[in-house]
Amino acid sequence: MKLNFYITCTALLLALSGCGDDFLDKKPSEQLSKEQIADAAKKDPNLLNGNIAGLYSTMYNTETGGTTNHDDFGQKGYDIYSDMLASDMVLGALNYGWYSTVARYQATKDYTQNADYQPWRYYYRIIFSANTVIDALGGTDAEQTEDTQRFIMGQAKAMRAYAYFYLAHFYGAGYGDGSDKILPIYTNTEVPNQPLSTTEEVYNLIISDLTQAIAYLDGFNRTSKDQINVWVAKGLLSYAYAARGTNADLQNVVSITDDIISNSGFRLNNQDEVLARFDAGTGALLNPQSGFNKVTNPSWIWGVDLTLANNLDLVSWWGQVDLFTYSYAWAGDPKVIDNGLYAEIHEDDVRKGQFVDVYGDGLYWPINKFYASQRTKELDENEIGGQRSIIDDYVYMRMEEIYLLNAEANAKLGQEADAKESLTDLLELRIEDYDYVDALTGQALQDEIYLQTRIELWGEGKVYLALKRNKVTATRGDNHLFFPGESFTFDSDELTFPIPQAEVINNPVLNQ
């Protein structure tokens, strides 16, 4: 089927953002052949860096899910999907309707919905593009010995693993015993239609790709944080092992995250980087290093530096979430914290101040966690809705995730002293009195780590992953427009997308 995701670019170095929508349905007649790309790469492997750059741009460009919808803008769009599925992010109104089918759990019940198909198209586009690079380097099993080829292959395999990892979460109910058939696997661009593979087979590929990527990326010095280096690959591998969740996997999580914590050079954010603070008299912003809007943030392991050249505006993560950006959140579709989760944040926790009831209607906006960098005051009508063209950055992975994964894995292994150490390393930067952690054991300790994951990573697309790997139940607070007070288990139909209709129609061997 070629995944129905052929790239229509006519030259090797064109970024994916230059491709038209018609690549979704037919093989282009003017693209370079696999052989031509491979021949060019043999002469100058650096040419493939253009394809790698295209992979990274797919993560933040609009319409990369194959639609013109205003929730179609790459990874951060699907971070919003997952936060709403996990119920920690609330769609506060329906003036424009974006994300309504996700918040209503319609897209997870109806395989004809665009919100069901967009993630599928996006992640398989990443896979096809990664496979184009891998094929040009001799194929998925080809050994790379030269640094240039090793670094390119390492990034391509890591991106392929990243895409399969998210697909496995969106379209699978969790690892289970590994026997559920969830996704077709494609490891080159020439293979015909493939049937569904099991969760075990998908995770075996993810872990194999990331293990190889880590080996190949040894010595790679990236030029920008949007590129995958060895620390990003190790973070992704930690997530994959944690999701599969055997004791051996969990021990691998501990070892890898210990390595990242000790040797990566990234650190946890301090309070001035986590919470916006204001002068009591003038309302002036005192710590512009907050706002989670700069890729230079010392905790960001993976992210992208967005500039005017990226041409993003209201169709963006900032547009959909930030009150200070001219777009949907400001204009009437707020994205706010679940009231039940907000109530669980300790009063002495600085992160409680990240959320503000802006209009006195019981909706707590994340305006002191995320805000456009043009903001200078607490609340100024001239600054609300002020950012028109996006110059603020996207975060994909940060150090706090690594500490929480480390604590979670140690707790599940019964290594509770180590779990508490990692957890309190984080909490001492957030809460005045965190001594209560000392008394926690067993499931109570695991529950606390999960709660802190929900609080720390709210709005960043990571709680859905934690919900599925911890096999927990999401209960909606009373400020949800749909299903307030109702609970949904991690493996319920509401929390997992079905295989999209287009795939069912176009892949005749899907269920063989």
TrEMBL record:
Keyword terms of this UniProt record: Cell outer membrane, Membrane, Signal
Short name of one Pfam family: SusD-like_3
Domain SusD-like N-terminal: 22-219
Protein's UniProt keywords contain Chloroplast: no
Domain called RagB/SusD: residue spans: 366-512
SUPFAM superfamilies: TPR-like (SSF48452)
PROSITE patterns in the cross-refs: PROKAR_LIPOPROTEIN
Localisation per UniProt entry: Cell outer membrane
Gene3D superfamilies according to UniProt: 1.25.40.390
Keyword Translocase: no
Family designation: Belongs to the SusD family.
The protein's name in its UniProt record: RagB/SusD family nutrient uptake outer membrane protein
Source species: Ohtaekwangia kribbensis
